Amino acid sequence: MKSNKKVILASASPRRQELMKDIGCPFECIPSNAKENLNQSLSIDLAIEQIAYDKAKDVFMQYSQDVVIGCDTMVVLNGIALGKPKDEEDAKKMLRNLSGKTHQVITGVAILTENKKFVFHEVTNVTFYDLNETIINSYIKTGESMDKAGSYGIQGHGKILVKGIQGDYFNVVGLPVARLYRELKCMNILDFDEK
């Protein structure tokens, strides 16, 4: 680490925490209380970046001497953002809409420090197999879809829905860690080569 600043992940997601551990980045987890409101006046990618920034800023206001990373992941089908489902029927509807189609998973990431602010997003194309009602109902029964954007998790039982992906797999899981790793190095926040 190049400084004595703490790295704080402004997320409660166990998947994001696992990915941060995987790249050897020491961090603390302090979930943000910022609202996830998609700004309709912005393009979808910029609106997702804005949510990531709002999450980071919410935590940064209390930890301004440290490095705060905020993230938000959204599933986008035909230009329409699909967030987390409201209930099981909503989850089924989303999965029916995604069936046999290619959609985008966009993750916005914001890195805030005392004198730097950097926000970016990563896009991955995901194609689903045709899903019949039996597959959809069986997947919904796992309970996995309820806290996931687009109603599925590619790293869990949701992998059986996916025909293929183009882009960063870990972006679909919730954090484009390879890009984040490089941005942290470019910003001279961390030097992961030091042991």
Short description:
With 195 residues, the protein is α/β, with parallel strands linked by helices.
N→C terminal distance: 9 Å
> What is the H-and-E element order?
EHEHEEHEEHEHH
Query: Which percent band covers the strand fraction?
Result: 15-25%
What profile does the largest beta sheet have?
Answer: 7 strands, mixed
List the total number of helices.
6
Overall body shape: elongated
Q: Give me the Rg, rounded.
A: 17 Å
Query: What average pLDDT do the residues reach?
Result: 92
Question: How many β strands by DSSP?
Answer: 7
Please state the structural category: alpha/beta
Task: Give the proportion of residues in helices.
Answer: 25-40%
Q: Residue ranges: pLDDT <50 for 5 or more in a row?
A: none
Q: Can you give a write-up of this model?
A:
The chain is α/β, with parallel strands linked by helices and 195 residues long. It contains 6 helices and 7 strands, in the order βαβαββαββαβαα. The radius of gyration is 17 Å and the shape is elongated.
